[in-house]
RNA sequence: GCGCUCUUAGCUCAGCUGGAUAGAGCAACAGCCUUCUAAGCUGUGGGUCGGGCGUUCGAAUCGCCCAGAGCGCGCCA
């Protein structure tokens, strides 16, 4: 089916076409003045500018034709030239009936599906995920779900940080403390992580230690058997730990490749750059200079003076692999926006090397999670907060508001814990996703355990209440019927439902999950008003009862789908302790 | 120094080709549970959209200047 808004746009487009107006202005948007109209078209204003004509006259011409349409209740031209459109209730109702039959809720699949490779997550060996990793995982996963719902073929790759200097630092630290690498394979993630922390400190203070670490890194990359063997263990343990984290976040990765997998290709890229004569050797490093602009554009270091590959080279090589092996039409990096210059450089080199001639490269940068001081968040001891701790904190808060296991029939320990997890994760993810990705936000521990107002649990709660009504309807044999719109809350709710497609489309276009959180919240909010003013099961009129039941079920479907697109679960019931 | 991104209600943030009375949530205050889960609903108060100039019939939105903040700028990733 075509969404209501799209149907309306078709009508307008036809009028523009027959009137000889540029069709690019032929579209409506939900009215800014709900007291005056359901939708407004500002096209006359834009047209007037290009045609140098009176906007009200153009608007009136369009409005007069539109008024003849059977689905339109009233059309008026107001103010400087807004075309205000009010739809007939029957048209909206019929649209809802169609939407209820459509498993995609009015969202047609794209006619031009792409192969999209998504690079998000970005975990590193020996580092547990912390709050800084939250955004990439949560935003990336949401965009992944949205793009694949829209119909693209999305492949996600975690792009594990497993090949840089930190590898040499850890190995060096272990050798420094143990004398050799003989005990490496007995170390778990905690000890590897603590080796890394000590390595970090030591290399900062001691230039000699840093030098040794770089040397070991280079030897590892050149295939030193002893180092490779130890490294394999570090990597395996880290991947296993990180997988657990991502499972809990419900972030899905099709590929678990890492920087190390691009190693061979890195060598080829260096060769290619040399053949094309775009690289040069400077101070012992192999670099590519980029065209001067008005902004600082440092050269890209392919090979460091110690012989190790630079991380930019890894990203460049990975682009080639994604284009060659995965046939990527588009590669999306969901990475901290502080890396924007890095990606600008990498994309520029990819272009110079002609390794991705028809692939769109895009960096979706997100802002940092900041502390009260406006700088990237640090705990009191100067460290970063573990993601696991954040999740536990939120779970504790949820758990304390829940009934104890077996207090509610069918809810033993396992069921309660599942519910606790679903609600806590909803609170955390929604809290993060409701912010525009590009802007950072101030970290407040309390925010991740809030369940009132514009939060994930609020939306889950709306769904749970609808589920409850539907269960009741099933028990008493009441079934859904044709939608009838008579109350203003029914009308408002229907119009919001009709906007689902628009919300999905905008989220996909802008790769901006906050558009979806906003929509989901507004829909849940309008439903809550409806819930209070329009009784369903106790409605006296059977037709109204059947209509409202169907409307409620449709809201549930839309909210569940919206939450799915955000990576959030929708529990059947929301329980609360007395 | 150069560049990028920002500055909207007490706090955290929206604001869809430039448009009509700039919107939410939280916090505050006042109501609503014998009625589909009160994690809810209804209402009230609260903003010279950082400052200035300009473009325009019209600017939170576009341009320039200023002030303030964050981030980035060759061998960490």
Spell out the CATH superfamily of the largest domain: HUPs
Assembly state of the chains shown: single chain
Strand content: 5-15%
Q: Which CATH architecture of the largest domain? A: 3-Layer(aba) Sandwich
Q: Treating each run of at least 4 consecutive H or I residues as one helix, how many helices?
A: 19
How many domains comprise the coordinates? 3
Poorly predicted runs are none
Q: Over the alpha carbons, how many angstroms does the gyration radius reach?
A: 28 Å
Largest pleated sheet = 4 strands, antiparallel
Principal-axis shape: globular
Could you outline the blueprint of secondary structure elements for this entry?
Blueprint: H1 4-19, E1 29-30, E2 39-41, H2 43-51, H3 55-66, E3 72-78, E4 82-87, H4 89-101, E5 115-119, H5 131-150, E6 153-157, H6 165-178, H7 189-205, H8 207-221, H9 225-249, H10 263-275, E7 279-282, E8 285-288, E9 300-303, H11 311-326, E10 330-336, H12 340-353, E11 360-366, E12 369-370, H13 387-400, H14 413-433, E13 441-442, H15 456-475, H16 488-498, H17 500-510, H18 513-533, H19 542-566
Parallel strand pairs: 5-6, 5-10, 10-11, 12-13
Antiparallel strand pairs: 1-2, 2-4, 3-4, 7-8, 8-9
Helix pairs in contact: 1-3, 2-3, 4-16, 4-19, 5-17, 6-7, 6-8, 7-8, 8-9, 10-11, 11-12, 13-14, 15-18, 15-19, 16-18, 16-19, 17-18, 18-19
This protein binds one RNA strand of 77 nucleotides through strand 1, helix 2, strand 9, helix 11 and helix 12.
């Amino acid at each position: 089916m075509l969404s209501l808004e799209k149907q309306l746009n078709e009508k307008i487009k036809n009028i523009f076409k027959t009137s000889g107006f540029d069709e690019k202005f032929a579209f409506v948007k939900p009215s800014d003045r709900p007291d005056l109209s359901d939708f407004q078209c500002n096209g006359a204003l834009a047209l007037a500018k290009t045609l140098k004509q009176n906007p009200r006259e153009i608007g009136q011409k369009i409005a007069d034709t539109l008024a003849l349409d059977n689905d339109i209740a009233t059309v008026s031209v107001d103010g400087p030239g807004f075309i205000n459109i009010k739809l007939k209730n029957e048209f909206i109702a019929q649209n809802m009936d169609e939407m209820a039959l459509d498993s995609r809720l009015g969202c047609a699949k794209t006619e031009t599906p792409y192969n999209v490779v998504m690079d998000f997550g970005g975990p590193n060996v020996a580092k547990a995920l912390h709050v800084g990793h939250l955004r990439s995982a949560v935003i990336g996963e949401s965009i992944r779900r949205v793009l694949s719902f829209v119909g693209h073929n999305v492949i996600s790759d975690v792009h594990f940080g497993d090949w840089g200097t930190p590898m040499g630092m850890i190995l060096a630290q272990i050798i420094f403390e143990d004398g050799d690498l003989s005990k490496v394979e007995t170390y778990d993630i905690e000890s590897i992580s603590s080796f890394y922390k000590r390595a970090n400190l030591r290399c900062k203070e001691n230039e000699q230690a840093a030098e040794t670490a770089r040397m070991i890194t280079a030897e590892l990359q050149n295939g030193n058997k002893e180092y490779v063997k130890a490294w394999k263990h570090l990597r395996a343990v880290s991947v296993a730990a990180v997988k657990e984290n991502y499972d809990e976040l419900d972030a899905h990765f099709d590929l678990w490749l890492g920087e190390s997998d691009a190693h061979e290709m890195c060598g080829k890229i260096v060769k290619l750059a040399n053949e094309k004569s775009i690289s040069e050797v400077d101070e012992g490093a192999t670099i590519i200079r980029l065209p001067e602009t008005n902004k600082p554009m440092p050269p890209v270091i392919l090979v460091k003076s110690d012989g190790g590959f630079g991380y930019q080279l890894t990203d460049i090589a990975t682009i080639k692999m994604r284009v060659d092996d995965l046939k990527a039409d588009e590669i999306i990096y969901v990475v901290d926006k502080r890396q924007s210059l890095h990606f600008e450089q990498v994309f520029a080199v990819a272009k110079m090397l002609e390794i991705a001639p028809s692939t769109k490269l895009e960096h979706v940068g997100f802002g940092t999670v900041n502390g009260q001081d406006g700088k990237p968040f640090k705990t009191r001891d100067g460290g970063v907060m573990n993601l696991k701790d954040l999740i536990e904190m939120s779970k504790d808060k949820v758990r304390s508001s829940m009934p104890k296991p077996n207090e509610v029939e069918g809810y033993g320990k396992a069921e309660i814990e599942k519910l606790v997890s679903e609600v806590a994760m909803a609170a955390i993810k929604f809290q993060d996703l409701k912010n525009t990705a590009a802007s950072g936000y101030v970290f407040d521990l309390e925010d991740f355990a809030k369940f009132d107002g514009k939060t994930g649990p609020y939306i889950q709660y709306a769904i749970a209440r609808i589920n409850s009504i539907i269960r009741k309807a099933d028990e008493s044999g009441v079934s859904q019927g044709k939608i009838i719109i008579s109350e203003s809350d029914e009308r408002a709710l229907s119009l919001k439902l009709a906007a689902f497609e628009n919300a999905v489309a905008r989220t996909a276009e802008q790769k901006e999950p906050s558009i979806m959180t906003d929509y989901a919240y507004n829909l849940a909010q309008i439903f809550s008003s409806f819930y209070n003013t329009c009784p369903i099961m106790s409605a006296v009129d059977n037709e109204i009862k059947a209509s409202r039941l169907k409307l409620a079920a449709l809201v549930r479907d839309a909210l569940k789908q919206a939450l799915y697109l955000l990576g959030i679960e929708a529990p059947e019931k929301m329980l609360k302790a007395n």
